[in-house]
Amino acid sequence: MDDMLRYEAERALALIDRGRLKELEPRLTAARQELLDDVALLDSKAAVPASKEPLDAGFIELPRRLLDDVVESGGASLIGRILRAALPLRDELEDFVVLGIGGSYMGARALCEALCPAFYNFLPRERRRGPRLFFEGNNLDNDSLRGLLEVLQVSGRWGLSVISKSGGTLETAVAFRLFRRALDERYGASSDEARRYIVPISGEVSAVTGKKSRLRELAEAAGYEHVFPIPDGVGGRFSIFTAVGLFPAAMLGLDIERLLAGAADITDRFRSRPPGDNPVLDYTAVCHVFEQDRGCSIRVLSTWGARLEALGLWYDQLLSESLGKEERGATPITVVNTRDLHSRGQQHQEGALDKLITNVLVEAPAEPPLELPRDERDHDQLNQHAGKTLPEFLRAAFDGTNRAYADAARPTADIRLPRLDEYTVGQLLQMLMLATVLEGRLIGINPYGQPGVEAYKRNMEEILRGRST
Ligand code: PA5
Q1: How far is CA 75 from the centre of its chain?
Q2: Whose CA is nearest to atom 12 of ligand 1?
Q3: ∠ at Cα 221 (219, 223), nearest 5°?
Q4: pLDDT digits over 243-287, tens only?
Q5: Torsion of CA 139, 143, 146, 151, to 10 degrees
Q6: What is the structure's pLDDT at 23?
Q7: CA-to-CA dists, residue 342 to 131, 315, 345, 351, 357, angstroms
Q8: CA 248 vs CA 31, 77, 254, 399: distances in Å
Q9: Residue 342 is among the residues annotated as catalytic for this protein
Q10: Distance between CA atoms of 142 and 170, rounded to whole angstroms?
Q11: Ligand 1 atom nearest 202 alpha carbon
């Protein structure tokens, strides 16, 4: 139990009639049942009714199934294959690039930042468990692409993973062509390295075109040694526990089985525990009631620690693409404190009353605490705090901020992680995915798919082909 994250909403609940949560319970548990029925429907392979399309509920039971498969199939399991592919590459490569966008990138970045030491890429090789990691193919930014290609030109051995579920996303495909060319030039197009140092990860068929993934076709034609699938029934932003997140994590030497164990355990809790003892149900209920009753349509994920910023951005995408439909859906914002107390803090304290703030707090730092030293000169007058640790300063800021918000009747709640490791991060990611889908079912919005994103892509293609200006 000590390893489990906790969701605590006492400060927020003091501002509303708790009876509202009780009233919501039957609808909430019915929505939970719908999620579980969705999994059963996918498993049955029966036709999915049009009202449920697309249905990407495959992420829900995926962590437990992957772990069970390790027991049943050992080295032939997906986890076994990922580890086998990553191990030699981790040793051989100095740099590794992950090409992907949206759900094919943000999860890997969240894992890297949360679970690797700060300034990971700057650490000497002996303090890193894998190559330096870079992300590209998530933009059409000339300078950033060129900059990374130049870095790689003067680097030691490097490789890449190209990730796209549909296999045709332009940003990623353009970057892949450029990086593949650079890799071919470095090692020779038919070299062993060119075959081993590129690891494509893709779905079988594009959900948009219904045709075979172009990336998959390319990978087969090129004969790359390792190609990993993204299973049907798992949507892009829900794919962090497929090879999309797990392969980059394995390249960093992270414990991917612990990650999955955290996700599987919070799913068990979601399935079996009643409201009041169920972080997914409780978080969803509080978000929903504050949005309905108090107009809190802005969800601030207030992270206390720089290592959680990318995880917050991953959640921004998850909530935006899942529920931002039919002119509805709360707006997510990630802040990193205490940094953003000096930018957004003013608005959160005194601006429009439209925000629910959920803190994400790690109770014990991953690294030994730094202590403020005594200084004989004391020009900065900090000797009064000498001996206090950085976590103590952060704690004072956390308590002070939440007290100030409470005094101004601003709702805040906490997600508390006992520490930052694979097990707790696995729980948090899966909790947020489950809560997002649960909320969709609760309010009658299909949380899967992102039809709105297609419009810009269509226009861009037309403009590029010169059909429109
Ligand atoms: O959640 C999603 O499905 C999207 O954000 C996709 O991940 C994103 O558009 C990238 O798509 P693809 O993986 O097909 O390149």
Answers
A1: 27
A2: 164
A3: 65
A4: 999 999 999 999 999 999 999 999 999 999 999 999 999 999 999
A5: -100
A6: 97
A7: 35, 22, 6, 14, 16
A8: 33, 17, 9, 36
A9: yes
A10: 14
A11: 13
CA distance 206 to 235: 11
Domains in the chain and their CATH numbers? 6-48+275-449 (3.40.50.10490), 62-254 (3.40.50.10490)
Question: Any residues with CB less than 8 A from the CB of 270 and at least 6 apart, and which?
Answer: 32, 278, 279, 280, 281, 431, 434
Gap between the Cα atoms of 331 and 124, Å rounded: 40
pLDDT for the residue numbered 1: 57
User: Hey, which of 104, 161, 215, 216 would you mutate to test ligand 1's pocket, going by the most ligand atoms within 8 Å of its Cβ?
Assistant: 104
Whether residue 226 lies in the annotated active site: no
Task: Give the model's pLDDT for residue 454.
Answer: 87
Predicted TM-score (pTM) of the model is 0.97
Amino acid in position 262: G
321 is catalytic: yes
What torsion, rounded to 10 degrees, do the Cα atoms 226, 230, 231, 235 define? 180
Hey, what are 226's tokens? 């390792």
CA distances from 469 to 170, 171, 465 (A): 19, 20, 10
Of the candidates 74, 102, 60, 419, the one whose C-alpha atom is nearest the C-alpha of residue 263 is 60
Low-confidence ranges of the chain (pLDDT < 50): none
